[in-house]
Specification:
This protein is an alpha/beta fold. It contains eight helices and 15 strands. The chain has three domains: 118 residues, Periplasmic binding protein-like II (D-Maltodextrin-Binding Protein, domain 2), CATH 3.40.190; 88 residues, D-Maltodextrin-Binding Protein, domain 2 (3-Layer(aba) Sandwich); 67 residues, Alpha-Beta Plaits (2-Layer Sandwich), CATH 3.30.70.120. Bound molecules: adenosine-5'-triphosphate and magnesium ion. The site of magnesium ion (MG) has 3 residues, from loops.
Length: 284
Protein backbone atom coordinates (compact mmCIF):
# COMPACT_ATOMS: atom_id res chain seq x y z
CA UNK A 1 0.00 0.00 0.00
CA UNK A 2 1.40 3.38 -1.03
CA UNK A 3 0.39 6.98 -0.49
CA UNK A 4 0.15 8.79 -3.83
CA UNK A 5 1.23 12.43 -3.82
CA UNK A 6 0.94 14.92 -6.69
CA UNK A 7 3.47 17.72 -6.89
CA UNK A 8 4.20 20.38 -9.49
CA UNK A 9 6.23 19.03 -12.39
CA UNK A 10 8.15 22.25 -12.89
CA UNK A 11 7.62 25.79 -11.74
CA UNK A 12 7.74 27.77 -8.55
CA UNK A 13 6.60 25.04 -6.17
CA UNK A 14 8.60 22.14 -7.61
CA UNK A 15 11.92 22.58 -5.82
CA UNK A 16 10.45 23.46 -2.43
CA UNK A 17 8.06 20.50 -2.61
CA UNK A 18 10.95 18.10 -3.20
CA UNK A 19 12.98 19.83 -0.50
CA UNK A 20 10.16 19.44 2.02
CA UNK A 21 9.92 15.71 1.32
CA UNK A 22 13.68 15.46 1.70
CA UNK A 23 13.58 17.28 5.03
CA UNK A 24 10.97 14.74 6.09
CA UNK A 25 13.58 12.06 5.42
CA UNK A 26 11.95 10.92 2.18
CA UNK A 27 14.28 10.35 -0.76
CA UNK A 28 12.84 10.45 -4.22
CA UNK A 29 14.90 10.21 -7.35
CA UNK A 30 13.61 12.93 -9.51
CA UNK A 31 14.73 12.16 -13.03
CA UNK A 32 14.23 14.87 -15.63
CA UNK A 33 11.00 14.43 -17.60
CA UNK A 34 9.78 11.70 -15.31
CA UNK A 35 6.04 11.77 -14.71
CA UNK A 36 6.03 9.31 -11.84
CA UNK A 37 8.52 8.03 -9.32
CA UNK A 38 8.69 6.25 -5.99
CA UNK A 39 10.36 7.11 -2.73
CA UNK A 40 13.08 4.68 -1.74
CA UNK A 41 12.47 4.83 2.02
CA UNK A 42 8.77 5.67 2.50
CA UNK A 43 5.68 4.10 0.91
CA UNK A 44 5.14 7.11 -1.31
CA UNK A 45 4.45 7.33 -5.03
CA UNK A 46 5.04 10.75 -6.58
CA UNK A 47 3.21 12.14 -9.63
CA UNK A 48 4.59 15.22 -11.36
CA UNK A 49 1.75 17.35 -12.78
CA UNK A 50 0.74 20.84 -13.92
CA UNK A 51 -0.37 22.63 -10.77
CA UNK A 52 -3.79 23.40 -12.29
CA UNK A 53 -4.56 19.69 -12.56
CA UNK A 54 -3.62 18.72 -9.02
CA UNK A 55 -6.98 19.49 -7.28
CA UNK A 56 -8.88 17.40 -9.84
CA UNK A 57 -6.52 14.43 -9.42
CA UNK A 58 -7.04 14.58 -5.67
CA UNK A 59 -10.83 14.94 -5.92
CA UNK A 60 -10.93 11.89 -8.18
CA UNK A 61 -8.70 9.94 -5.81
CA UNK A 62 -6.09 9.33 -8.53
CA UNK A 63 -3.72 11.06 -6.11
CA UNK A 64 -4.38 10.80 -2.36
CA UNK A 65 -2.69 14.08 -1.54
CA UNK A 66 -0.93 16.93 -3.30
CA UNK A 67 1.16 20.02 -2.80
CA UNK A 68 -0.36 23.03 -4.54
CA UNK A 69 -0.96 26.76 -4.06
CA UNK A 70 -4.02 27.56 -1.96
CA UNK A 71 -4.94 29.98 -4.78
CA UNK A 72 -5.28 27.03 -7.17
CA UNK A 73 -7.35 25.00 -4.69
CA UNK A 74 -9.77 27.90 -4.20
CA UNK A 75 -9.99 28.68 -7.91
CA UNK A 76 -10.68 25.11 -9.01
CA UNK A 77 -13.45 24.56 -6.45
CA UNK A 78 -12.73 20.85 -6.22
CA UNK A 79 -13.71 18.74 -3.24
CA UNK A 80 -10.41 18.47 -1.39
CA UNK A 81 -9.32 19.05 2.21
CA UNK A 82 -6.55 21.48 2.99
CA UNK A 83 -4.76 19.63 5.78
CA UNK A 84 -1.60 21.67 6.25
CA UNK A 85 -0.18 25.05 5.24
CA UNK A 86 3.41 24.57 4.19
CA UNK A 87 5.02 27.98 4.63
CA UNK A 88 6.51 28.31 1.14
CA UNK A 89 5.21 29.63 -2.20
CA UNK A 90 3.89 32.68 -0.41
CA UNK A 91 2.20 35.22 -2.65
CA UNK A 92 -0.94 37.29 -2.91
CA UNK A 93 -3.59 37.60 -5.56
CA UNK A 94 -3.94 41.32 -6.13
CA UNK A 95 -5.87 43.82 -8.20
CA UNK A 96 -3.64 46.21 -10.11
CA UNK A 97 -4.44 49.20 -12.30
CA UNK A 98 -2.32 51.47 -14.54
CA UNK A 99 -0.17 53.81 -12.44
CA UNK A 100 -1.86 56.87 -13.92
CA UNK A 101 -5.37 55.73 -13.00
CA UNK A 102 -6.85 57.46 -9.99
CA UNK A 103 -7.85 54.82 -7.51
CA UNK A 104 -9.48 55.57 -4.18
CA UNK A 105 -11.46 52.43 -3.34
CA UNK A 106 -12.77 49.20 -4.70
CA UNK A 107 -15.71 51.23 -6.10
CA UNK A 108 -13.33 52.42 -8.80
CA UNK A 109 -13.49 48.91 -10.28
CA UNK A 110 -17.19 49.41 -11.04
CA UNK A 111 -17.92 48.68 -14.74
CA UNK A 112 -14.29 47.99 -15.61
CA UNK A 113 -12.83 45.10 -17.60
CA UNK A 114 -10.55 42.94 -15.44
CA UNK A 115 -8.10 40.46 -16.94
CA UNK A 116 -7.18 37.47 -14.77
CA UNK A 117 -6.35 33.77 -14.67
CA UNK A 118 -8.50 33.50 -11.54
CA UNK A 119 -12.08 34.18 -12.72
CA UNK A 120 -13.73 32.26 -9.87
CA UNK A 121 -11.88 34.00 -7.04
CA UNK A 122 -12.20 37.39 -8.73
CA UNK A 123 -15.94 37.10 -9.31
CA UNK A 124 -16.44 36.11 -5.65
CA UNK A 125 -14.42 39.14 -4.60
CA UNK A 126 -16.43 41.46 -6.83
CA UNK A 127 -19.71 40.02 -5.56
CA UNK A 128 -18.61 40.54 -1.97
CA UNK A 129 -18.05 44.21 -2.75
CA UNK A 130 -21.14 44.63 -4.93
CA UNK A 131 -19.08 45.52 -7.98
CA UNK A 132 -20.18 44.76 -11.51
CA UNK A 133 -17.23 44.25 -13.83
CA UNK A 134 -16.41 42.25 -16.90
CA UNK A 135 -13.93 39.44 -16.25
CA UNK A 136 -11.61 38.49 -19.09
CA UNK A 137 -10.05 35.13 -18.43
CA UNK A 138 -6.55 34.79 -19.83
CA UNK A 139 -4.10 32.08 -18.94
CA UNK A 140 -0.81 33.97 -18.83
CA UNK A 141 0.99 37.32 -19.23
CA UNK A 142 -1.94 38.97 -17.53
CA UNK A 143 0.10 42.06 -16.68
CA UNK A 144 0.29 43.23 -20.29
CA UNK A 145 -3.51 43.30 -20.70
CA UNK A 146 -4.02 46.98 -19.74
CA UNK A 147 -1.11 48.10 -21.95
CA UNK A 148 -2.60 46.49 -25.05
CA UNK A 149 -6.10 47.74 -24.37
CA UNK A 150 -7.59 44.40 -23.39
CA UNK A 151 -8.53 45.42 -19.85
CA UNK A 152 -8.69 48.36 -17.43
CA UNK A 153 -7.37 46.37 -14.49
CA UNK A 154 -5.85 43.00 -13.76
CA UNK A 155 -5.93 40.51 -10.93
CA UNK A 156 -2.80 38.42 -10.72
CA UNK A 157 -0.36 36.74 -8.35
CA UNK A 158 2.26 39.01 -6.86
CA UNK A 159 5.20 38.32 -4.59
CA UNK A 160 7.51 41.34 -4.75
CA UNK A 161 5.44 43.53 -7.04
CA UNK A 162 8.35 44.18 -9.42
CA UNK A 163 6.60 42.61 -12.44
CA UNK A 164 3.63 44.91 -11.92
CA UNK A 165 5.89 47.92 -11.56
CA UNK A 166 7.82 47.08 -14.72
CA UNK A 167 4.54 46.92 -16.61
CA UNK A 168 3.38 50.34 -15.43
CA UNK A 169 0.86 48.99 -12.95
CA UNK A 170 0.19 49.62 -9.27
CA UNK A 171 -1.25 47.17 -6.78
CA UNK A 172 -4.52 48.44 -5.28
CA UNK A 173 -6.31 45.55 -3.55
CA UNK A 174 -5.25 42.25 -2.00
CA UNK A 175 -7.87 39.71 -2.97
CA UNK A 176 -6.25 36.66 -1.36
CA UNK A 177 -3.09 35.71 0.51
CA UNK A 178 -1.78 32.33 -0.50
CA UNK A 179 0.93 29.78 0.18
CA UNK A 180 1.58 26.18 -0.75
CA UNK A 181 -0.69 23.73 1.06
CA UNK A 182 -0.99 20.00 1.49
CA UNK A 183 -4.39 19.01 0.13
CA UNK A 184 -5.95 15.59 0.62
CA UNK A 185 -8.73 13.50 -0.85
CA UNK A 186 -12.01 13.45 1.10
CA UNK A 187 -12.20 9.66 1.18
CA UNK A 188 -8.88 8.16 2.11
CA UNK A 189 -8.52 4.46 2.87
CA UNK A 190 -7.50 3.83 6.50
CA UNK A 191 -4.01 2.73 5.36
CA UNK A 192 -3.56 5.92 3.35
CA UNK A 193 -4.83 8.02 6.23
CA UNK A 194 -2.25 6.40 8.48
CA UNK A 195 0.52 7.19 6.02
CA UNK A 196 -0.75 10.77 5.71
CA UNK A 197 -0.69 11.12 9.51
CA UNK A 198 2.88 9.88 9.51
CA UNK A 199 3.87 12.34 6.80
CA UNK A 200 2.10 15.23 8.54
CA UNK A 201 3.84 14.37 11.81
CA UNK A 202 7.17 14.78 10.00
CA UNK A 203 6.10 17.94 8.16
CA UNK A 204 5.05 19.52 11.45
CA UNK A 205 8.40 18.71 13.04
CA UNK A 206 10.18 20.33 10.08
CA UNK A 207 7.93 23.41 10.09
CA UNK A 208 8.26 23.90 13.83
CA UNK A 209 12.04 23.65 13.62
CA UNK A 210 12.14 26.32 10.90
CA UNK A 211 10.41 28.82 13.16
CA UNK A 212 12.51 28.00 16.18
CA UNK A 213 16.12 28.53 17.20
CA UNK A 214 18.18 26.88 19.91
CA UNK A 215 19.89 29.37 22.19
CA UNK A 216 22.82 28.87 24.57
CA UNK A 217 24.19 31.57 26.81
CA UNK A 218 26.30 32.13 29.89
CA UNK A 219 24.73 33.87 32.87
CA UNK A 220 26.14 35.09 36.16
CA UNK A 221 24.30 33.13 38.88
CA UNK A 222 22.93 36.23 40.58
CA UNK A 223 21.14 37.10 37.30
CA UNK A 224 19.86 33.59 36.57
CA UNK A 225 16.28 34.14 37.70
CA UNK A 226 15.89 37.29 35.67
CA UNK A 227 17.40 35.66 32.56
CA UNK A 228 15.32 32.48 32.88
CA UNK A 229 12.24 34.67 33.18
CA UNK A 230 12.96 36.07 29.71
CA UNK A 231 13.17 32.65 28.06
CA UNK A 232 10.12 30.69 26.99
CA UNK A 233 11.70 27.22 26.57
CA UNK A 234 9.87 24.03 25.64
CA UNK A 235 9.25 23.15 29.28
CA UNK A 236 11.73 25.35 31.09
CA UNK A 237 15.32 26.20 30.19
CA UNK A 238 18.17 23.79 30.95
CA UNK A 239 20.65 25.26 33.43
CA UNK A 240 24.13 23.74 33.84
CA UNK A 241 26.97 24.97 36.08
CA UNK A 242 30.02 26.31 34.25
CA UNK A 243 33.56 25.38 35.31
CA UNK A 244 34.00 29.02 36.24
CA UNK A 245 32.58 29.65 39.73
CA UNK A 246 29.41 31.75 39.91
CA UNK A 247 28.38 31.22 36.27
CA UNK A 248 25.87 28.95 34.56
CA UNK A 249 25.14 27.90 31.02
CA UNK A 250 21.48 28.27 30.01
CA UNK A 251 19.95 26.42 27.04
CA UNK A 252 16.53 27.06 25.58
CA UNK A 253 14.50 27.43 22.39
CA UNK A 254 13.17 30.67 20.94
CA UNK A 255 10.53 31.51 18.41
CA UNK A 256 12.01 33.29 15.41
CA UNK A 257 9.42 36.05 15.66
CA UNK A 258 10.38 37.28 19.14
CA UNK A 259 14.00 36.49 18.55
CA UNK A 260 15.71 39.91 18.44
CA UNK A 261 13.63 41.43 21.25
CA UNK A 262 14.52 38.57 23.57
CA UNK A 263 18.22 38.63 22.65
CA UNK A 264 18.39 42.34 23.45
CA UNK A 265 16.71 41.86 26.81
CA UNK A 266 19.02 38.93 27.60
CA UNK A 267 22.10 41.01 26.91
CA UNK A 268 20.73 43.86 28.98
CA UNK A 269 20.11 41.41 31.84
CA UNK A 270 23.79 40.33 31.82
CA UNK A 271 23.85 37.28 29.54
CA UNK A 272 27.14 36.67 27.73
CA UNK A 273 28.44 34.45 24.95
CA UNK A 274 25.01 34.06 23.41
CA UNK A 275 24.94 31.37 20.70
CA UNK A 276 21.96 30.83 18.45
CA UNK A 277 21.84 27.65 16.37
CA UNK A 278 19.33 26.26 13.89
CA UNK A 279 17.20 23.26 14.82
CA UNK A 280 16.77 20.54 12.23
CA UNK A 281 13.64 18.81 13.51
CA UNK A 282 11.45 19.52 16.50
CA UNK A 283 9.08 16.88 17.82
CA UNK A 284 6.84 17.83 20.71
P1 LIG B 1 2.21 24.92 -14.20
O1 LIG B 1 3.09 24.71 -15.37
O2 LIG B 1 2.39 23.83 -13.18
O3 LIG B 1 0.76 25.16 -14.55
P2 LIG B 1 2.21 27.72 -13.42
O4 LIG B 1 2.93 28.54 -14.40
O5 LIG B 1 0.72 27.71 -13.42
O6 LIG B 1 2.78 26.23 -13.49
P3 LIG B 1 3.91 28.82 -11.32
O7 LIG B 1 4.17 30.17 -11.91
O8 LIG B 1 5.01 27.83 -11.28
O9 LIG B 1 2.60 28.15 -11.95
O10 LIG B 1 3.36 29.07 -9.85
C1 LIG B 1 2.94 28.01 -9.03
C2 LIG B 1 2.40 28.59 -7.74
O11 LIG B 1 3.42 29.29 -7.06
C3 LIG B 1 1.27 29.61 -7.86
O12 LIG B 1 0.01 29.02 -8.07
C4 LIG B 1 1.35 30.29 -6.51
O13 LIG B 1 0.66 29.53 -5.54
C5 LIG B 1 2.86 30.25 -6.17
N1 LIG B 1 3.54 31.56 -6.32
C6 LIG B 1 4.37 32.11 -5.40
N2 LIG B 1 4.83 33.30 -5.79
C7 LIG B 1 4.31 33.54 -6.98
C8 LIG B 1 4.44 34.63 -7.92
N3 LIG B 1 5.16 35.70 -7.67
N4 LIG B 1 3.80 34.51 -9.09
C9 LIG B 1 3.08 33.42 -9.36
N5 LIG B 1 2.92 32.38 -8.51
C10 LIG B 1 3.51 32.44 -7.32
MG1 LIG C 1 -0.54 26.35 -13.70
Amino acid sequence: MKLKIAIQKSGRLHDDSIKLLKECGIDINNGVNKLKTEASNFPLEVFFLRDDDIPQYIEDGVADIGIVGENVVLEKKKQVNIVEKLGFGKCRLSMAVPKAMEYASVQDLQHTRIATSYPVIVSEFLQRHNITAEIHEISGSVEIAPGIGLADAICDLVSSGSTLFMNGLKEVETVLKSEAVLAACHQLQPEQQQLLDKLQFRIQAVKRAKNTKYILLNAPNEKLNEIIGLLPGMKSPTVLPLAQQGWSSVHSVLNENDFWDIIESLKAAGAQGILVVPIEKMVI
